[in-house]
Please model this.
Amino acid sequence: MHMPPGHPALVATGWFTELYGPFGGCPVQLLGRLSTGEHVYFRAREGKVTLSIAYSEDDATSREGPHLADYQLGMKTTEDAGLLPHDLCAAIVFVWVAAYMKEHHDSCPCRLSQAAADKLQALVETYIIRRELDEEDTSKLTRVLQAAGQTQQ
Model:
């Protein structure tokens, strides 16, 4: 299976040594390996958006784990998650991996500017509260992710 390259804004963080996605639809998925060695698996399908972090790829992609961290977001309907735009999925991954890295690997800072990180956090929080982004928010998200992806070293 051909694995698509990682989202440029996520690559720009410097957190990943391997990154594929987000890709697909129903489910939207992302696979990655952090620079600290852990494996990351993101999945958006039916009524749930989840991210698991584990020591192995098999554990990360398994519902049973064992997982080092799990993040989850419920949706309005069972069809919503698998149709999420890839940019929004990348922003959600950014926020959840940022929380994990801050808690477990504070010595591995993000390479994105604090302003870009704060904007992504705010847009994901807006989405979580409303369970949707309007056209202006979607446009803002795309601009922030594009700018973040261009900050790669």
Remarks:
- The chain has five helices and five strands.
- Residues 8-149 form one domain.
- The mean pLDDT is 86.
